[in-house]
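About this split. The held-out portion is used to measure sequence recovery: a designer receives only the structure tokens and must propose an amino acid at every position. Recovery is the fraction of positions where the proposal matches the reference. Here is one held-out target exactly as it appears in the evaluation file.
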């Protein structure tokens, strides 16, 4: 059903194309509507007055559509052919090429503001050049895959995406509200309006999918939805010019990736599926485990024992009579939650994860809108 959700979203965006540009279309096709927006009163051979149509905004919108269509097609291919992780990891990067090309041609800014404590060493701005494009490509790879990694129980993929989308929408509203009044539109207005255009229909189709995917699920979302949702966030973050704020919303996903890294990079055994284990006798989910066919090496063994015995345990282990580790819990946030709070109903586990996502996201927004000036000299809304 993730593919159905994505197709409905794409059709909605296509139908919506004329509406953000309605005034410009009217101004470009009628003389009376052209009076306030003339480039110069030059007359074409056909007698039409030239108008400054916002081609750059239209290009951004169409590139977003093209990137989304690309990632949906690649996501459907993944669902059909079950592409291996090492191959599908770069699917979002390929899909993001149209968006990055438009960013390069239309905007092209690769400067970043330096925090106040570092200004005496680096100056007010630093130009990252190609590194900034590598960063944007990395964000494009990370966001869709991070949603796909933090998955496996009913409703959690859609619910985390909904929370992130609502928080980003709140960020847009706060940014528009905080912009100082002026006769001319603030430079940050159009990017945040663009973000709202993409987020509102996304929230609508995701709410419909969540209704059927929440526990007990009647439909499943597939990898297509994870790629599609992550790419929506990448597009609004990059073309809306708030990619750092976007990453604040992804703190749980960043933690899950870093926590999963030992298994993802095969430092430890990594089964294909690391979902929590359903105990049919109790009806509860329990932390799933990986079996150690051979005892781990000394460094890994000591690390696991330290993590298991820390004040906040990050793993649960089972040892044999000789003290060798024979099994340990899989390194995902879902399993870690069950290590901390014990076996739970699937719905309760999902609510706990989503509640944590919402709280961390709200704290991130608070830091962005109230504490940013403690680190940076100027807010881009000013």
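Reference sequence for scoring:
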């Amino acid at each position: 059903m993730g593919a159905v959700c994505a197709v409905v979203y794409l059709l909605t965006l296509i139908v919506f194309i004329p509406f953000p540009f309605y005034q410009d279309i009217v101004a470009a096709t009628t003389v009376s509507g052209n009076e306030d927006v003339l480039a110069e009163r030059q007359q074409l051979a056909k007698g039409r007055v030239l108008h400054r149509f916002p081609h750059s905004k239209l290009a951004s919108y169409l590139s977003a559509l093209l990137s989304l269509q690309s990632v949906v097609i690649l996501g459907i291919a993944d669902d059909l052919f079950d592409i291996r992780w090492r191959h599908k990891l770069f699917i979002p990067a390929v899909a993001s090429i149209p968006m990055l090309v438009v960013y390069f041609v239309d905007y092209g800014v690769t400067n970043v503001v330096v925090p106040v404590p570092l200004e005496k060493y680096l100056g007010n701005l630093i130009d990252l050049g190609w590194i900034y494009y590598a960063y944007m490509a990395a964000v494009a790879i990370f966001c869709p895959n991070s949603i796909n990694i933090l998955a496996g129980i009913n409703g959690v993929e859609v619910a985390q995406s909904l929370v992130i989308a609502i928080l980003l929408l709140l960020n847009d509203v706060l940014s528009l509200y905080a912009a100082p009044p002026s006769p001319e539109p603030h430079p940050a207005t159009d990017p945040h309006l663009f973000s709202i255009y993409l987020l509102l229909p996304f929230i609508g189709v995701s709410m419909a999918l969540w209704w059927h995917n929440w526990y007990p699920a009647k439909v499943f979302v597939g990898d297509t939805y994870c790629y599609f949702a992550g790419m929506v966030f990448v597009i609004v973050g990059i073309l809306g010019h708030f990619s750092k704020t976007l990453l604040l919303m992804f703190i749980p996903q960043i933690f899950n990736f870093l926590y999963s890294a030992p298994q993802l990079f095969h430092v430890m055994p990594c089964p294909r599926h690391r979902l929590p284990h359903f105990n049919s006798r109790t009806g509860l989910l329990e932390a799933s485990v990986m079996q150690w066919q051979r005892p781990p090496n000394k460094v890994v063994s000591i690390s696991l024992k330290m993590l298991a015995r820390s004040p906040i345990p990050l793993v649960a282990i089972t040892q044999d009579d000789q003290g060798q580790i024979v099994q340990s819990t899989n390194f995902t946030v879902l399993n870690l939650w069950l290590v901390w709070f014990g076996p739970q109903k699937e719905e309760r586990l999902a609510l706990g994860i989503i509640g944590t996502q919402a709280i961390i996201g709200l704290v991130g927004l608070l830091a962005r809108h109230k504490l940013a000036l403690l680190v940076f000299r100027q807010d881009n809304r000013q």
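Annotator remark: DSSP finds 16 helices and nine strands in the chain.
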